[in-house]
Design brief:
With about 600 residues, the protein is an alpha/beta fold. Helix content is about 25%, strand content about 20%. It folds into 2 domains: about 25-75 and about 125-310 and about 490-530, Alkaline Phosphatase, subunit A (3-Layer(aba) Sandwich), CATH 3.40.720; about 315-485, no CATH class. The protein has helices at about 1-15, 40-50, 65-75, 80, 110-115, 130-135, 145-150, 180-190, 220-240, 255-260, 275-295, 340-350, 405-415, 490-495, 520-530; strands spanning about 20-30, 50-55, 85-90, 100-105, 140-145, 160-165, 245-250, 300-305, 315, 355, 375, 385-390, 395, 420-425, 435, 455-460, 460, 470-475, 485, 500, 510, 555-565, 575-580, 585-590. Helix 7 (about 145-150) links the parallel strand 5 and strand 6.
Length: about 600
């Protein structure tokens, strides 16, 4: 009798022990690790201080959104997911209205086309949300279109995952994933507008506004936060089902891209008042979610993981030796690089005709430049070179039969450009002086999409502040003006993202010294909730067991450096990396003197 009474007492004292765990995944797009302070981001800083501080954190390269979204979703590196960039080459041109062989993946409808083309799931791996749904979890993903939809990439009928983003209701010309009628009614009953506000109202599209924006993306994100706290969390509580909620905050990314504090000036760059307001905006939304969990009685059984897809830099458009900078363009400051500068320079350097992504010829001397990638060669229907722009990184594809002979010529050209920082080459094309093999950075795996032939990171440096990561600058192939924000490079200012976690499964007040990355989140959460992720490819992240209350000791880890053979002109690609628990983490890579944070 006494033993039975004691067992019952213990069971009632720990009611959450047997309950399936709830998970909130909060992604603050474009949040640098060192930009989080109690003043700029109190809620984010509180999670880091009270829970686990993943101080040695990493974004995957290229340090842009959809590649890291694919890693957060699946727990696999890019060599498996095939999401090599926000813009990738997909072979045959896509049907109308796209009509190009270059696909910009931050588009829900385009992801559907990629699924149809690449075996029903272009990532080739089961996502965490899909595995959780199969186990009976309620799942929802809210926020920035593109990466939000990737979290449950094969669910497009609105019946599996509740998904709300910029495209909901046909916003931005997209169709969006259908919204459950009950959710739509609950949004109305909560006093919210039926559709999310256009991010352009808040300056989120300021990257395309020559005046820049001086406000954070408050209005749109307040709507998403309202849906999460007033509709979805109450719904999950009423259903009495365990849940996973992904909240993908567009800020600080969107505002940093478009901020008007620093037009045509590298200082303050992305450290001005508008960017700081965007960081605070994301932090405020996290606090709203934490407050709602507490009010609903869900906090004690909910783990909150916070991550950023990548860090950030200030954009430079200056490379005086570039032939592209010597032409006069209608909307580019004289002497500055236009979009597609690498494409223009390569067409000149290799003597190949230049076409934009639709196949139309581009003539720089007439004031034109390619804005969304390019096709090089006599016949745009059968290009010799395809260039996919990705901010601080460019992906180069050699789709023709002469790829193996052409690759050394392309690499030799790249080593002579002052704006090139790092070069990686597809292993199938052999070793080329000046470049490292793509397998070194986790890009040779089971990907279903075409694998790039060559990947480059553009030059990055510091403007000289006390914390170089906080005043990083990079050359980039994008639409931003000099002084606005950009990312994508292999500099540490871009790879050092913010990561933290708090909740019943995570240690309290623990600073994790071991290297971690965005590929580790899904594997760690899968262990917490007891689901099995797919293993079609073998490039998996690890379980961050040292951060868990019932986990293992901190794994031993070591730093190492890899150097390419030098090119004829002395150009080398150096890679700084760390190894822990059998996984490799990438700090920085490039030519010494051209990559911020590189230790040669």
């Amino acid at each position: 009798m006494a033993a039975a009474f004691l067992c019952g007492l213990l069971a009632s004292a720990t009611p959450s022990a047997a309950a399936p765990r709830n998970i909130v995944i909060f992604v603050a797009d474009g949040l640098r690790s060192h930009s989080v302070t109690p003043e700029t981001a109190p809620a984010l800083a509180a999670v880091r201080a009270e829970g686990v501080d993943f101080a040695n954190s990493h974004s995957l390269y290229p340090t842009i959104t959809t590649p890291n979204s694919s890693a957060i979703a699946t727990g696999h590196l890019l060599g498996d997911t095939g999401d090599f960039g926000n813009t990738i080459y997909v072979g045959e041109p896509l049907p109308a209205p796209y009509g190009s062989s270059l696909a910009a993946i931050e588009d829900d409808d385009l992801q559907l086309l990629l699924n149809q083309r690449f075996g029903g799931n272009y990532l080739g791996e089961t996502t965490l949300l899909a595995a959780a749904r199969a186990k009976g979890y309620a799942v929802a993903a809210v926020g920035k279109h593109g990466p939000t939809a990737i979290q449950d990439v094969t669910s497009r009928d609105g019946k599996g995952v509740i998904e709300l983003d910029d495209d909901t209701g046909g916003r931005d010309g997209g169709h969006g994933i259908p919204l459950d009628a009950q959710v739509a009614a609950a949004i109305k009953a909560a006093g919210l507008e039926p559709l999310p506000p256009d991010r352009g109202l808040n300056g989120g599209s300021g990257a395309y506004n020559m005046a820049g924006t001086l406000v954070a993306n408050v209005e749109q994100q307040a709507w998403f936060a309202g849906v999460a706290t007033k509709v979805l969390l109450p719904r999950f509580k009423a259903e009495a089902k365990p849940f996973i909620l992904v909240f993908w905050s567009r800020d600080p990314d969107g505002t940093q891209h478009g901020q008007g504090d620093s037009l045509n000036a590298l200082s303050p760059g992305i450290n001005g008042p508008t960017s700081k307001a965007a960081i605070h905006n994301a932090s405020d939304d996290l606090q709203k979610i934490r407050d709602a969990l507490q009010a609903l009685g869900l906090a004690d059984n909910t783990d909150i993981v916070v991550t950023a897809d990548h860090g950030f830099s200030t954009m430079s458009r200056e490379a005086p030796s570039s032939p592209a900078a010597k032409f006069a363009y209608r909307d580019v400051k004289p002497g500055f690089l236009p979009q597609g500068f690498l494409d223009i320079d390569m067409s000149i350097g290799l003597g190949l005709k230049l076409h934009d992504s639709t196949g139309s010829e581009v003539v720089p001397k007439d004031g034109f430049y390619p804005k969304r990638g390019s096709l090089l060669g006599a016949d745009p229907a059968h290009p010799q070179i395809v260039i996919a722009p990705n901010g601080g990184a460019d992906l180069i594809y050699l789709p023709g039969p002469d790829a193996r002979a052409l690759a050394p010529r392309v690499v030799e050209f790249l080593t002579r450009q002052e704006y090139v920082g790092a070069i990686f080459v597809n292993d199938d094309l052999g070793q080329i002086p000046g470049a490292l093999p793509m397998s070194r950075i986790g890009h040779m795996g089971a990907a279903r999409t075409p694998r790039p032939s060559i990947m480059i990171s553009f030059k990055s440096w510091s403007t000289g502040c006390d914390d170089p990561e906080m005043c990083g600058v990079e050359i980039a192939d994008s639409s931003q003006q000099q002084g606005q924000g950009i990312h994508g490079s292999f500099g540490r200012q871009d790879t050092h993202n913010f990561m933290a976690a708090i909740g019943p499964d995570f240690k309290r007040g623990f600073k994790d010294p071991a290297p971690v990355s965005n590929a580790d989140w899904a594997n760690t959460i899968a262990q917490i909730i007891g689901v099995q992720l797919s293993d079609n490819g073998k490039l998996r992240g690890r379980v961050m067991a040292e951060a868990l209350i019932e986990g293992a000791p901190t794994p031993e880890f070591k730093a190492f450096t890899v150097r390419s053979e030098p090119a004829a002109n002395g150009f080398v690609t150096v890679l700084n990396a760390q190894e822990a628990a059998g996984e490799t983490y990438f700090d920085a890579a490039g030519m010494p003197g051209r990559t911020l944070g590189l230790k040669p």
